Amino acid sequence: xxxxxxxxxxxxxxxxxxxxxxxxxxxxxxxxxxxxxxxxxxxxxxxxxxxxxxxxxxxxxxxxxxxxxxxxxxxxxxxxxxxxxxxxxxxxxxxxxxxxxxxxxxxxxxxxxxxxxxxxxxxxxxxxxxxxxxxxxxxxxxxxxxxxxxxxxxxxxxxxxxxxxxxxxxxxxxxxxxxxxxxxxxxxxxxxxxxxxxxxxxxxxxxxxxxxxxxxxxxxxxxxxxxxxxxxxxxxxxxxxxxxxxxxxxxxxxxxxxxxxxxxxx
Length: 266
Fold this sequence. Notes:
Helices cover 29% and strands 23% of the residues. By secondary structure, the chain is of the alpha+beta class. The strands form four sheets. Strands 3-8-11-9-10 form a five-stranded antiparallel beta sheet. It has a two-stranded antiparallel sheet with strand order 1-2. Strand 1 (2-6) and strand 2 form a beta hairpin. It is globular and about 50 Å long.
C-alpha cells in the first residue's frame, strides 16, 4: 500500500495493478479533451534502461499533434516547421493545406488552444478524413482526477482582462475540464503522465529525465508506454517532483490519465 498526501487531499490506494485501481476509481476522472498523435522515439537524453524505444506523451516538448498551431493559418509557426510536422503525419503539402483549411475555422468550436479536441466524435472524424491510412495514429483522451480539478482550474483560469488589452484566452484543456464531464467509456487505459502547468500545460516528467529520479527514490518505473502504471504511484511521483530540491520545471505538477480511443469506429 502507498499513501499520497497533499494540501487538502489525503488519499490511500491499494496498489493492486492498474486494472483494479481503474475499475474502482475511473468514474472519478473528468475528461480533459482529446489529442491525436503518434508514438515517438525515446528522447536521446532519457534512460535507455527505463524507457521503451517508442513512447506516448501529451507534451508538445516530446510529441506532435494534429490539430495544433502548425495547421492554424494565423498562428506564428514558420512554414518549414509546419511542413515538418505535416510530414510526421504522412501529409504532403496539398494535404496539409486541406488540414489547415479544416482546422482554422474550427478553432474555438471543435478544438481549443493549442491542440485539445473537445469531443471524441470530432477526433474520430478528423482521423477518418485526413489520416485513414496511418496505422499507428492514436486518439488519446486526457483525464484528471476530481481531487485535482480545483487546483488545476485555479492555476489555469485566465487573468482578468486589463483595460485597453484583448481578453486573455483559455487553454483548451481548461475549457474541457471546466465542463466537469466524465471521461468517455470504452477506451483503453494506458497510464498516467506527470505534467506541469505554468501558463500552459506543457512539460512531461520525461522532459527533465525524472524517470531516473523517480525510479531511484521511489522505486516507480515507467510502463511500456513511458507512463506511470497506477494513479497512486503517479501521485507519489508528482508529490516528489514538486519538491523544490528536485529542480523540476516550476508550476503545478499533476498526474494526467491517458486513455486510448484509437479503436473507436470511424
